[in-house]
Structures are given as structure tokens and as C-alpha cells.
Amino acid sequence: MASLTRKANRFDPLKRAIVIGMVALGMALPVASFATSASAQSLLEKIQNGETVRVGFSNEVPWAYPGENNEPLGFVNAMTIDMLKKLGTTKVEPVVTEWGSLIPGLQAGRFDIITGGMYILPERCRNVLFTEPLGAFSDSLLVSKGNPQGLHSYEDIRDKGLTLAIAAGSSFVKDAKQVGIPDDRIMQVTGNAEILQAVKTGRAAAGGGAYFTLKASVDKDNSIELAEPFTPPGGRVYPGLAFLPNQQAEVDAFNAVMKDYIGSDEMMTSVGKYGYTKATLPDGTTTAKLCKQ
Q1: What pLDDT, on a 0 to 100 scale, did the predictor assign at position 20?
Q2: Could you report the per-residue pLDDT of 140-194, keeping only the tens digit for each?
Q3: What residue ranges define each of the domains in the chain, with the CATH number in brackets?
Q4: What is the per-residue DSSP string for the chain?
Q5: Per-residue pLDDT at 212
Q6: Residues with Cβ within 8 Å of residue 3, at least 6 apart in sequence
Q7: What is the 3 state secondary structure string of 247-273?
Q8: pTM for the model
Q9: Quick one: what percent of the chain has pLDDT higher than 70?
């Protein structure tokens, strides 16, 4: 019993977060049963024991992407690694997959957390649990140099009967359909590299995507640019870390850490090299609100 007490004291912040999560689930358990309840939460047990946590992401620069030897890079991965250290582990195993395979991969147990910068959307909230937002961002439109078609919105693409390239499984598919772009004018591709090629070869008049991701492409290729100005169809967007529906305790553990971490000097040092600035910090919009929209 003494050894269990020492271990529990060592991870007091995590223990408190777990208890909060259990209360939120209606699991108001006596203190004596804490160890049993924690052991039922496989991911929290792994974190407590300092074991390896598998993070799943696609190749989305600068959100989350693989570096040399598959090193997890990008500002969402950097934030996740910092928070995992605070919760008890420094061991992270990256699992890179296509964007459309992130939620299925989580459900299949291929990884423990989605760190790909996934937007918090109502339809996704029915399949995964999100932390509070990691930031507030905007989307952009990729076009050929000089924007020859004069595109500044999805409505422009619809009205001119042009083709929009976007990543399959992304929120941009829904945005395009809601605006009224017909299915045969929505080119769904694997990821950003394919969007870029579709625009450069003329197979698509424009590509939809996250500002940071598309800007990274523009910075390396002077044959393309971002449409300016651009009116995004859904306003600002908010990414979070995603977990399985039965992992509310894990979500609460991360949210507890985020209260002091988000916007801290430590965080800004970790994410600054990826282009994340104080202008992209969360704006107070909650996950509960985003899941109900």
C-alpha cells in the first residue's frame, strides 16, 4: 500500500484530472477504488507508468508531420509532447497515416491520440472526444500565380463552374457541398501534395485547405499563391486533440494541463518555429459550443 501511495503522490496532477473525468462521467467513486478505476483507463495507465503513447497524424505541415526517422514534428505534436511530459511520460511513438484514416485508425487502436490538427466539428464529435481548442485559425484558397480566375471564395468557384481540389475526409468537403459546388466539381485527393499538383497542372482551378498548410506550399513554389482576399465558408476553425468516446478522463487530464500551458512561454517557445503566434491562441470558444453547432 505504501508503494501505491508514493506512486499516486507522484502523479497528483494527473490523479486530480482523472477524478474530475470520472465525476463528469457520473462515476463518483470512493477514494479506495481510485487505483482500480485508473487501471481501467489503459491510456492513463500508460501515461502514469511512463510508457510509450502512440500519436496519429497525417503529413500536414506545419500542424503535424514526420521528420527524419519519422520524428513527430509540427506545432500540434510539439504541444502534445509537452503536455504528455507534464502528465508523466516522455515516450512518444509517431504513426503517420492518410488524413481520411485518422478517425478509423484511432477506432481500430492503431494509435492512442489524434494529433493532426483536426478541426472540432459536430459530425466528428459523434465519433471522437476532443480536448478544448488548441488555437483559432482560418482557411485559405490555393490558386495559380496571379489568380487568373479571380477566385476569392468557394462561391466564386461554384458560380464559375470550376473545380476545387480538397483532401478527402476533411472539413472542406462539407464546406464545398454546403456552398453548392456540385460533386463532380469537388476533386477529393489524398492530401496537400495532391492538392498542389492538381492546381499546378490545371486539373483544379483552386485548392482548399488550412492557411498554415497551404502557405507552406506557397513559400516553396513561386508558381502558386494564396487568394487574397479570401472569405472562408465557415469562419474561424478550432483544432483539438482527439480521443476515443470512452476516454473522457483522458480528455479531462489534458484539459487540466492546458489551462496553464496554453499561451505560456514554454508553449510559445515550442510552437514558434512552426509559425504559431499569439494571434492564433484560442479565443474563448469552447469545444462544447463547437460540437453543438
Answers
A1: 43
A2: 999 999 999 999 999 999 999 999 999 998 889 999 999 999 999 999 999 999 9
A3: 2-136+238-292 (3.40.190.10), 139-226 (3.40.190.10)
A4: -HHHHHHHHHTHHHHHHHHHHHHHTT----GGGHHHHHHT-HHHHHHHTT--EEEEE--BTTTBEE-GGG-EESHHHHHHHHHHHHHT---EEEEE--GGGHHHHHHTTS-SEE-S--B--HHHHTT-EE-S-S--B-EEEEEETT-TT---BHHHHHHTT--EEEETTSHHHHHHHHHT--GGGEEEESSHHHHHHHHHTTS-SEEEEEHHHHHHHHTT-TTEEE-SS-B-TT-SB-B--EE-TT-HHHHHHHHHHHHHHTT-HHHHHHHGGGT--GGGS--S--HHHHHH-
A5: 86
A6: none
A7: CHHHHHHHHHHHHHHCCCHHHHHHHHH
A8: 0.72
A9: 86
As a whole number of angstroms, the distance between CA 226 and CA 210 comes to 11
| Per-residue pLDDT at 41 | 52
Stretch 20-32: mean pLDDT = 38
Percent of the chain with pLDDT over 90: 75
What's the CA gap between 266 and 263, in Å, rounded?
Answer: 8
In the structure grid, which three cell numbers stand for residue 147, read together? 489568380
Cα distance between the two ends of the chain: 48
What does the block give as the cell for 248? Answer: 473522457
